[in-house]
Structure prediction request, 372 residues.
Amino acid sequence: MTPINSFTKSTIPFFYLFLAFVISVFGVCFIEKTKVSTKNDYYDLQYKASHIMQNSISVLKDYRIENNISINIDDDPNRTGIIGEDMTLLVTSVGNLQAKRTSTNPDFAALMVKFFKELDLKAGDHIAIGASGSFPALLIASLSAAQAMELKPLIIYSIGASNYGATIPGFTFIDMLRELNRQNIFDYKLLAVSLGGDHDLAQYMFFEESEAVFDQIAQSAAVTIIKEATLEKSIKKRMELYAGALGSNPMKVFINIGGASTNFGATEASLIFPNGLSKSPPRVLSSPVKGLIFEYSQSGIPVIHLLNIKDLAMKNKIPVDPIPIPQLGTSGVFFHFKYRMDYLAIFSGLTIFILITGYREKKAKKRSGEKL
Prediction:
């Protein structure tokens, strides 16, 4: 009968296990050296989109300077002009400055092209965008990619923003898009606007006078204002507006930018919705306030969810909070990477050969010693 403790002992001596570990570490380092980067097949489109975004940011920076809207270089060391103020009448929630600065990188326009190509979008396809004021740079990135690929975006914008987003009255995305239209960067218009914030009605704000300012800004957009009594009705109104604008055309993707409750939802499940491109819902919800990311994903429409930006950047080889912003077309999002598999096969075979041969020789010597 086999002793119980025999099962707790490795049949391979510790020395060989340690040797395998050391060889593996060196092997990983060696194989990493064989990695070859190749431009994506759609590199030129990515570059075009990122260049459009770069030009857009430059135009908006000039607009700020011309209109005496100062740029805080401590908050915006790259002087993009697209970083808002910390606390204003338009702030609805807490935001992360590092994430906001990361989002100003034109690489995000290249990332949107990557997502659109993964969905096989073609010129003339309709895309829907629901955005809060929290990440105006990502809204510009999405429109830059849409322009590069000749897509047709339908945009509903919520004025409320987290810290350092589009938080400056007179420089919300409504103003930004108007200037970009004037400078012939984009010819896109907003489909509708809402106030954003609690219940999508700018309730329970930090300042008493905020709601009046929100109303004034919404009126200035000169488009449909969504101001429903409940969050559920506000979600349904958005779906009606998108459907009306689409007509018989299919919605190819819904893009959520930021954390507006109408888009993001007001459920615990919203917090675990996957970042980036999602072609199927992580779970099925029956909540009336599950938000458009669930409404559309559950109906079979892909969703691009742009939140938790630092994580999104790292996963897609975009630098986090770089100073200065890298040269266009150089970051990992423009490339795909391959390893020399022949080297990997040789290394794996050699490692196995060395371990097995060494172990057999030791066993053979041990047997010879026992016979003597």
